[in-house]
Design a protein that fits this description.
The protein is of the alpha/beta class. It contains six helices and four strands; from the N terminus they run E-H-E-H-H-E-H-E-H-H. Strand 1, helix 1 and strand 2 form a beta-alpha-beta unit. The longest helix is centred in the last third of the chain and has 21 residues.
């Protein structure tokens, strides 16, 4: 089983969107049994809160079920447990490395790096643009799934 943790600043917008979209993607390909998928925050600001209404509305608009989730903060134990810890921007990556005490096992990635991009996924909490965030998340997730298939991990 491949264990994947999606991470953003508050765990209510981008990472919960990625968690729900990826869960839907693998379910549609009958591969859900191959994955454990979760999400977390680098901050404590939103702990216990449900996904942002903008994320909920965007997923509803595109027909993707929202994975039930309450925001939680990433821990050092998450680094030890998960195979892939995937952040949404450079700021997330730095904080993930700080929480994990570095990245000695090479498990921390930026989502769009799987698509060959160094771009960050903009935080819709600030931009208000959940459409753009959704498009970027989908681009990264499709590339991540292709990467896993190319590496014969699934």
């Amino acid at each position: 089983m491949i264990k994947v943790l999606f991470i953003c600043h508050g765990n209510i917008c981008r990472s919960t969107m990625a968690q729900s979209v990826f869960a839907d993607m693998v379910a549609k390909q009958h591969m859900e049994h191959l994955f454990e998928i979760d999400s977390a925050a680098t901050s404590r600001e939103e702990i216990g809160n449900t996904p942002h209404y903008g994320t909920v509305n965007k997923l509803r608009q595109v027909g993707i079920p929202l994975v039930p989730h309450r925001a939680r903060q990433m821990t050092k134990q998450d680094y030890e447990y998960f195979d892939y810890l995937i952040g949404m921007d450079d700021y997330n990556i730095r904080n993930m490395q700080r929480i994990a005490g570095g990245d000695p096992d090479g498990k921390i990635y930026a989502l769009l790096q799987f698509a060959g991009s160094t771009r960050n996924i903009a935080d819709p909490w600030y931009t208000g643009n959940f459409d753009e965030t959704y498009d970027d998340v989908c681009e990264g997730l499709h590339a991540f799934l292709a990467y896993l298939q190319k590496e014969s991990l699934i």
